[in-house]
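Translate sequence into structure tokens.
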Amino acid sequence: MTAHHSNGRQVRRRVGVGAVITDEHRRLLLVLRRNEPQAGTWSIPGGKVEAGETLCAAVEREVLEETGLRVTCGDELWVVDLPDGVGGVYEVHDFAATTPLPAARPRAADDAADARWFTASELESLTLTDGLLTFLRRAGVLPADGVGPSGGVG
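Result follows.
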């Protein structure tokens, strides 16, 4: 997909998805990104939407590929445009998703170097993808204050 930037130049847009998943202990599932953009940071599981795939089907496939967990896609929480580092944009649709409880232990696979459940207080010590804390707070997944570095990555 391409779009035109305000300067008339074409910008390549790629559509991606992410999944916000919490377990019965209110822990958040995160994956350690193996690849760019933002390799080496923790983020919610997700990835690119394949041709002909619905957004929810992409959420369920990506979570399974990256963590080994089966989830059910729920409501869309937010959409964000992220630069891809090479002049294009990822249009990322993030959804709430649920996994059967009690939640299983994730196993990292595909482009995730690691996958784990984290409590809200544990997020403070992690290097998260840009803006993740802000979006989680706005969506009500995390408290509006007291979790994570203020300003920082959020």
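Note: Residues 147-154 have pLDDT under 50 and may be disordered.
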